[in-house]
Amino acid sequence: MCSGKDWGTMQLDDAATILAHAEFFEICDNEQRRLLAFASERRRFEAGEVVYKAGDIPDGAHVLISGRLRTTPEGGGRFHDLSGEGTLVSAVALVIARPRPVTVTAVFASETLFVPRHAFLKLATQYPDLAARAADHIRRELTGYLGALAPLKGRIRKDQI
């Protein structure tokens, strides 16, 4: 039996704390994180279970709580492992409903906090300054990705794209 706070409040506080560990959600204040936590849900994935497939349009983003996830590009290629509490999987899925270019699979038993796009967009509508911070954050991430690809530009032929 719980003492002090009720079970729902403790779960809400836990979810808000998980969001606070995710770098992306530093753009939110404590109240905004609590509102997102209320709309979020914990999800568990067994080893080998697919979180979403390349080509899927996820309804939001996942914040890793425990375990390890692997991203594999559509059509194969080099995979990338994600680990560490607070790792955000697909920040762009919070604002854009587009097919994802990678399959995300649990390497071993993993738990995430799923943040639905509709909840984030509703919050961004209510707080225009949050929407601006989200856009800046995503822009910086994309600029970083493009900068990392720049050295490869000369090595990629047009017929390979």
Automatic annotation (TrEMBL):
<dbReference type="InterPro" id="IPR018490">
    <property type="entry name" value="cNMP-bd_dom_sf"/>
</dbReference>
<dbReference type="Pfam" id="PF00027">
    <property type="entry name" value="cNMP_binding"/>
</dbReference>
<dbReference type="InterPro" id="IPR014710">
    <property type="entry name" value="RmlC-like_jellyroll"/>
</dbReference>
<feature type="domain" description="Cyclic nucleotide-binding">
    <location>
        <begin position="24"/>
        <end position="141"/>
    </location>
</feature>
<protein>
    <submittedName>
        <fullName>Cyclic nucleotide-binding domain-containing protein</fullName>
    </submittedName>
</protein>
<dbReference type="InterPro" id="IPR000595">
    <property type="entry name" value="cNMP-bd_dom"/>
</dbReference>
